[in-house]
Specification:
The structure is a single chain. This protein is mainly beta. The protein has a single domain (33-185), classed as Beta Barrel (Porin), CATH 2.40.160.20. Helices cover 7% and strands 53% of the residues. The chain has helices spanning 2-10, 33-36, and strands at 37-48, 51-63, 68-81, 86-88, 94-102, 108-121, 134-152, 155-164, 178-185. The radius of gyration is 21 Å and the shape is elongated. 21% of the residues are buried.
Length: 193
């Protein structure tokens, strides 16, 4: 009876359950563009040797429907040298990252990411000496799971556990196969009249 009452509220012209549409309606249909775009900021901290490395990934996702979101972002790594007590440009990593995710319920979403990062080669996080040969564009791919939750007001918190799929010619700027990230999403609403 509760289900029928909810359905009657959603579909006011229903006379029986056989009148329910077979395909679930797209909850994004008719929504303005601003409500489909979700800006986000994700952080990842690496601690290796004399450096503390923090990745900042600013991105924007586009909601195709209530479940599927895909987007692009820019990742930039900032390095702090603990021995010299200052920031260093040498180990910085930057580049573009694309992602796609599909909500499966209770805030969980499987997620895939592809990226192209400009990084020192060999990677700073795997180097034994202080010298490096050059910088190169290094491809990367990740698969994992994202969990989102209410944080404050309209802001949503996110946590991700991502598995690095390959280590291209041992140039990956990530030292671990498993990468943990945390961040925030800022869903936007159209302002009223």
């Amino acid at each position: 009876m509760d289900k029928m009452a909810k359905l009657k509220k959603k579909y006011s012209s229903l006379n029986s359950l056989s009148d329910i549409p077979k395909q679930r309606p797209n909850e994004m249909r008719g929504k303005p563009l601003i409500e489909r775009i979700i800006p986000s900021l994700t952080l990842q901290v690496h601690g290796r040797g004399e450096y503390v490395l923090v990745d900042f990934n600013a991105a924007a996702g586009y909601r195709f429907n209530g479940k599927l979101t895909a987007g692009l972002g820019w990742n930039h790594r900032v390095a702090y040298n603990k021995k010299r007590d200052g920031f260093s440009a040498l180990p910085r990593v930057y580049g573009i990252r694309s992602f796609s995710e599909y909500k499966i319920g209770k805030g969980f979403s499987p997620r895939v990411e592809f990226e192209m990062m400009n990084a020192p080669v060999p990677p700073m996080i795997q180097r034994t000496s202080g010298d490096y040969s050059n910088r190169q564009w290094v491809p990367g791919a990740f698969v994992g799971i994202k969990k989102d939750y209410k944080f404050f007001g309209g802001v949503r918190g996110t946590s991700m556990v991502m598995l690095r799929l390959f280590h291209y010619e041992h140039k990956s700027p990530y030292s671990d196969v498993v990468n943990v990230r945390t961040g925030f999403e800022f869903p936007m609403r159209k302002k009223g009249p």
